[in-house]
Specification:
The complex is a heterodimer of chains A (about 35) and B (about 525). Chain A is an all-alpha fold. Chain A is built from one helix and no strands. With about 525 residues, chain B is mostly helical. Chain B has a single domain, classed as Amino acid/polyamine transporter I (Up-down Bundle). Chain B is about 75% helix and about 0% strand. Chain B has 21 helices and no strands. In chain B, about 55% of the residues are buried. Classes of the chains: A mainly alpha (about 35), B mainly alpha (about 525). At the A-B interface, helix 1 of A face helix 1, helix 10 and helix 13 of B.
Chain lengths: ~35, ~525
Amino acid sequence: MTTSGWIFMGLSWAVILGLFAFSMARTLRGGKGPGPS
Amino acid sequence: MARERWGSRFGVVMAVAGSAIGLGNLLRFPGMAAKNGGGAFMIPYFVALLLLGLPLTWIEWTIGRFGGGFGHSTAPGMFHTLWNKNRFIKYFGVIGIFGPIVIFVYYTYIESWLLGYSYFALTGQYGACTGPEEMSAFLNGYRGVASNAYFSGIGTAYLFFAVTFLLNIVIVYFGIRRGIEKVCIVSLPLLFLVGIVLVVRVLTLGTPDPAHPDWNVTSGLGFLWNPDWSALASGKVWLAAAGQIFFTLSVGIGVILTYASYLTDRDDVALSGLSAASANELVEVILGGTLVIPAAFAFFGPEETMKVAGSVFDLAFVTMPLVLQKLAYGHVFGFLWFLLLFVAGLTSSISLVQPAIAFLEDEFGLSRRSAILAFSAVTFAMTQACIFGLARGVVDEFDFWGGNFCLVLFGTVEAILFAWVFGVEEAWTQLHVGSDITIPRIYRFIIKYVTPPFLLVILGTWFYQEGLQTILMRNVAKGDFWYVFGTRAMLLALFVGLAILVKILWRRRRRQAEGLAP
């Protein structure tokens, strides 16, 4: 794999993992869940 | 009758992510990326995610919750709520029930192959197949496309189909909270776990064949990720990326609308939508991008890998079983591979059942048992056409109308309806009701001025490149004409039947409003 290949893979992974970590952490931490029926 | 609600926010996020995560994440994405510029493909891919995928996700979550506030669980009622001056928009919303039913019919059959192959992997049933030809013959024998030494009939496939169909129906019978949510809360983490185990195994493959030192996993990753900058000048690559984003996020089907209808104004949709989309991307880019292509490259080299890269079925049922059975404990890894795909398929297929059930139960007032029975009878009968007409292009026809045509059309119209008819001011307000994050204001502009034209371009191009050919039956073999024609007639009858139900429902509501009916 070329250096640019590693860079693309690394950047893509970083963006996705960052987005996932941010959103799931906020989701799991968020106080209010769906309201009662 | 009180409508059901989700038990937890994590549950609804897992359910929507489970709906989106399917075979396309693990099989379609890597082949698409490898064929369209490798690493450079990720530039149009991320652009499409930002301008098309995320806005559409938020649009559907918001429409779903908004419509749910008026007691609607499906698109006909929701679209009518958004544009109540238009008498016909509710009939357009029928696509949001029709599409999931059509996809469910053929998807469940394909999903059942994965269950069958999980069993075959454990029992070593395809162990005698040492090359792509034998493995393809095994698959064709199993599906009843050819009678050969491996299978003399379709009985085994039918048995696994019956089990898969029943499993889907039983899960949905238990409802949103006790059925779908519970299954997704367990299945999605299991899917991540199995995926990680397989990724670790693939990344430690090294150079399996010393005779071909260039065929190794690092070169396999390079095959997928090394950027080909010239691809960025091709409009087809940008459209391929936009199409992949559109199809991977489960938008344009009607499922997210139904799932979000079980939320209230106190529940967030902005963050939940983002979470579900990011979970889908994690499976697609990280797991999907690390499994099949690098593994196939390490064992079969660049030419063979490029040949199978565009075929989801070849990658799943021919290439990967051949690769995995060459490893120590190959039957275990083979089982894990098909289990991974089966779980991804199951969490998608149960989501496809819910819009029709919700329509019959919440809007038509049927009991869940009656709704499930009606749905099962219709879809089971329709699946027979897929099982016995597989070699005659019946499944392709189902996929075209349910999995392509309806999706693109529905997604385009709902984006225009939301941003232009409902109005971006009100849309923005609704999106942020109960929200735990503030979406950047640039998305007001994107939702109104970028996403709808982007979708119109995709719709137009897709229609020109593929749609028209198929609609006019130009690619249908002479001997298959009546099979395809019959399938089309069956789908039309289903659509008309659903439209009539919507008409009856509205007439009943009008009479109730006028005090003429109980």
